[in-house]
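User: Can you help me understand a structure? I only have the sequence.
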Amino acid sequence: MRRLIASLLFFVAGCTLAATHRLDDLYGPPDPARFENAPASEVSRAKWENVSNVLEHRCVVCHACYDAPCQLKLSSYDGVTRGASKDIVYATRLVEASPTRLHLDAETNAEWRAKGFHPVLNERKDTAEANARASVMHRILELRRRQPQAAPAILPADKYDFSLSRAPVCATIDEIGEVEKRPELGMPFGMPGLSTAEYGALTDWIEAGSPYAPPAPLDAAHGARIAAWEQFLNGDSLKERLMSRYIYEHWYLGHFYFDDLRAAPATGAAVEYFELVRSSTPPGQPIRVIATRRPYDDPGVERPYYRLRRMDEAIVAKTHMPYPLDSARLKHLKSLFLDADYTVTSMPSYAPEIASNPFRAFVEIPSIARYRLMLEQAQFTIMGFIKGPVCRGQVAPNVINDLFWVAFVDPDKMQQGELGEGELAAALDQIQLPAEAGSMLPLLQWKSYANAETRYLEAKTDVLNRRFGGKLAPTLDLLWDGDGKNRNAALTIFRHFDSATVVQGFVGEPQTMWVVGYPLLERIHYLLVAGYDVFGNVGHQLTTRLYMDFLRMEGESNFLYLLPMASRDPVRDFWYRGASDDVKQYLQGDKAFFAHETGVVYRTDEPLTELYGMMKSKLSPVLDRRYDIRASRLSRDVAGSMARLGQLSGVATSYLPEVTFVTLTGPDGAAEHYSLLHNSAHNNISTLFREAAERLPAEDTVTVVSGFLGAYPNAFQNMPASEFPAYVEAISKLSSEADYSATMAKYGVRRTDPRFWAHSDALHAAYRKMAPIEAGIFDYGRYENR
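Assistant: Let's start by predicting it. Here is the structure, written out as tokens:
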């Protein structure tokens, strides 16, 4: 067997070498610099604009971010020319990997080749023949073009593997001949082929040499806004420099736009987005990005500058984190950080034990300013936990429930709540987060972090027990009301098995709820966002997940303190049915025992339900209701069926996918779009590897909302509104996979449906119209084959 394997490897290597020589003989040696600094022209601009629309709506839907197959990121020209890699980002590894972040970790294609990326475009002689035959992209498109368009409704599993754990086929141009023997691997993979016009646009562009032209220069108004913000972020005083470092570590994932400059949706003009980067060059000079593994790592220069860099790539929903910048925001941040009466005596070290702990690094900035920065854009802050790289893959999101609400401690009353700035300062200073040890973490290291977290929890509980009692008791007055106008005061988080979504407002019926104050919000950010390394080893990744258990339980406990003492243990027991004794001890033992009665007045014998209702009532003025079903738009039968669908629960709902987009077309041809979300129930979510064993399908529920919720739709349903009652009736009677498959056959748009791309385009257009800032391209990497 060893001899056979060795012979096969020698044979493949020999074939690859022969293919390389053949291409070199025909078209010359490859030049990785071929697509860099190419002269722009009106012809190249027109060709790029023509093809970029096809790339975005037919290719980017699978090829964007870290989970793009083969790391082939087609959302920008730089991503296309960088090419693909056989290395998998989301992998279980014993040794940390080198980061391969586009626009950060390499500047030239030659540098990407040194990191193991191979081209998908022809880098040899620039002729139409060479550009076609020496291009992986051209040949993989041609392979799909030759495949018959007709396909079975459900593709055979032996040929089409759509699982997230599948091994991608990342062929180089020398290996493409073997791939061409398997026509099912042509692109788009497992979906209807491109139209003649789309195929022609892509292949003509490749054969023409893949020309590109950068976007037109920014206008003077944008330039002025950038200058004002870069001036603010690059002041010379210690106070300004510390503020800018803190802001950067919380904003580096953002997509910033100037709210007063964005075009009206009716114009169709694209919004200009920018990202905040560290640069070795000051404002006014070209940006030279400082690429570090984490945003708080040593920049390696005496002083980094914080710059706004224009984004030139397609906006995808799964990573899009829009953040508005305007003059009012600038003025407010100045008042919080610069006008406040405090002194910064020195800049903190970048040593990991300092930089990984924001309570040490930024101790000289008043906590009220730090909290306000995160709180006033809380959806953005928590989006970082959800849309950052940590939340791809089931191991990370299984630390949260499928549907829960989040409220926040009022910053003006946090001295009465959980912060106790002076009293907890010592405990916060000793907090340890996994990133302190870097990205090569022994798996058992988490116990030391657990001990540090336990010491903090004991100190916090001691403060609360001393603070409350007698006439002072926790009430809903401790909750932030959004200052009467800010919709970030109430959030809902949906988990979709291996991804999640955060929206403003209280949506659906929650399985649990968190109340979050500054120390908890900050620790989650430095655990899941600033300190998390997707390229880290398995010890780092699992320790991060295990640590998040503590933080989740702390947020839940903060909420439970508002319940009557007699109700807290029963609610905890229900949330953690079957949990280990260690978990129960953490939740209910001396470490987290709050020994005082709530100050909330209850009038029913169902205090948990009553508390949820009081939460909604208190925050009603700032609740975002964009996802509410508006019955006035629906006929009486459809409205009744919509209400019934939202009330379904039990085994029938367990057959539904995580996220379904439902389109109803009225008699006038107008379409209404809804999202149907499957909420899985569990005994508890404190078990890392036994999620399936903890499932409770009999308690599953669904949430129905208006519009689009979720970046990774699993299924599309499309029907006349008159058929919707029958659809709901069919869903309510699901009892097998065959039942669900029959429902898809009647109402669904399967991935093989000839209508798929037209329906996808209609959904994207509707999404942009409904939410022009929040909208991004959906990802079909989880679209089902059922």
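Now, to help you interpret it: Residues 427 and 459 are 7 Å apart (CA to CA). The chain has 27 helices and twelve strands. Let me know which part you'd like to focus on.
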